[in-house]
Amino acid sequence: KVYPAAIAKTQKIWTAYLDSIMKVGQMQILRRQITNELNYSCRFDSKHLAAALENLNKAILADIEAHYQNPSLPYPKEDNTLLYEITAYLEAAGIHNPLNKIYITTKRLPYFPAVNFLFLISQFPKLQYNRNLGIV
């Protein structure tokens, strides 16, 4: 037997959850747009700086990757500020992926991915593709 009060309560929870998910999604889109604008402005205003930062970033990443493939190669020490300083410059120039940045961590919740998957499937019929924006 299905109780109407339980259904109404469940719908309220899913509505609040949908609002939270949509806010996070909108913030992610804004972060991506701000990064793209910073990157465009950096390339337009100072193409040499943008190219130098990209090459330095690729070189550092190649050195770190080489270290992990062969641990006898050097790796930047903890007290070396190069990685922290270059990160600040890359973020200011928009040469990074804001969606890969982790701000907080939480304890792993059991069945959270499955609940999110089922929730997403239930919400797909409500979403519409907007060709002008290129986003859902």
Automatic annotation (TrEMBL):
InterPro entries xref list: WASH_strumpellin (IPR019393)
Q: Its GO biological process terms?
A: actin filament polymerization; endosome fission; endosome organization; regulation of actin nucleation
- GO CC annotations on file: endosome; WASH complex
Task: Describe the family membership recorded for this protein in Swiss-Prot or TrEMBL.
Answer: Belongs to the strumpellin family.
**PANTHER family listed in its UniProt record:** WASH COMPLEX SUBUNIT 5 (PTHR15691)
> What's the protein name?
WASH complex subunit 5
Species this chain originates from: Cathartes aura (Turkey vulture)
